[in-house]
Amino acid sequence: MTSLDFRGVYPAMTTPFHEDGSIDFEQFQADVRRLEEAGVDGIVPVGSTGESATLSHDEHVEVVEAAVEAVEDVPVIAGSGSNSTREALELSRRSADAGADALLLISPYYNKPEQAGLVDHYRTIADEIDLPQIVYNVPGRTGSNILPETAATLAEHPNITAYKAASGDLGQISEVVERTRDEEFAVLSGDDALTLPILSVGGVGAISVTANVEPARVGAMVHSALQGDYERARDIHHDLAPLNRHLFSETNPIPVKEAMEIRGYGPARLRPPLTRLTEENTEELRRLLSDLEAEQAIPDGGADE
């Protein structure tokens, strides 16, 4: 297994669609190249931001293959989770065969397993797939919460090497860091509004929605914090805060796809049952993006410092 330390910024990529609902692979690969040129540390296709719930298994794997084909030097972390352990294992195996460098595994949704079931689920996949794997805790989507003691138990497995934190509970996230300090285990922000606070308690990076439209700023904030320059990181955090909030004004990825269309990164098409951003929220989003464009360039360096 090739280890990854997961330090830095990893955009949770969207999946662009043609008017007929098929995947626009040309636009997707253009997005991959754009993000890599902006200095991101890796990319994360086919997660929840990538509308994985509406993709067939074959489409899912085709997106991973397209990402692997398009990147030059950064890792591809493929979303491959499911509420079925068998299905997650199949997707993980196929993603690994497609060339993914690591896997992002959302905790099982809807069926709400107990903590023992979560441990069994993740260990089953980690036993079978020899790639770095990220446990993804997002109770707002799954209906269950991976507790800190469960995260610590999972961190003992050599293939389970990171935790994406999107619970909104900074105390719990801090406890995960505390309990896993003796393991080679990275805690990543999965909530753009809390990325800087998570870094302050020991997180090392972010799987970021906002980085789809502001990759350089998000990267500069994260790397500044990792280098101990919290004054600069705070400045960028506050510059991005209104956009971070608004990108979750409606269900993700509705707002971020609209933002990408406003920025000229392809149409904001979504697969049903998701719908386009409301007119009121779109106008506010245009204003926020315009304000960021009008601001002075990122101060004192770039994302890769």
From TrEMBL:
Q: Quick one: a GO cellular component term?
A: cytoplasm
Protein's pathway = Amino-acid biosynthesis; L-lysine biosynthesis via DAP pathway; (S)-tetrahydrodipicolinate from L-aspartate: step 3/4
Which residues does UniProt assign to the signal peptide?
none
GO terms of molecular function: 2-dehydro-3-deoxy-phosphogluconate aldolase activity; 4-hydroxy-tetrahydrodipicolinate synthase activity
- Enzyme class comes to lyase
Query: Does the keyword Amino-acid biosynthesis feature in the UniProt annotation?
Result: yes
Gene Ontology biological process terms in this record: diaminopimelate biosynthetic process; lysine biosynthetic process via diaminopimelate
Which residues make up the binding site for pyruvate? T49, I207
Q: What is its EC number?
A: 4.3.3.7
- UniProt keywords, alphabetically: Amino-acid biosynthesis, Cytoplasm, Diaminopimelate biosynthesis, Lyase, Lysine biosynthesis, Schiff base
Kindly list the residues the record flags as site (Part of a proton relay during catalysis).
Answer: S48, Y110
Protein family according to the UniProt entry? Belongs to the DapA family.
How the protein assembles, per its UniProt entry? Homotetramer; dimer of dimers.
Protein name (Swiss-Prot/TrEMBL):
4-hydroxy-tetrahydrodipicolinate synthase
Native species of this protein? Haloferax denitrificans ATCC 35960
Lineage of producing organism: Archaea, Methanobacteriati, Methanobacteriota, Stenosarchaea group, Halobacteria
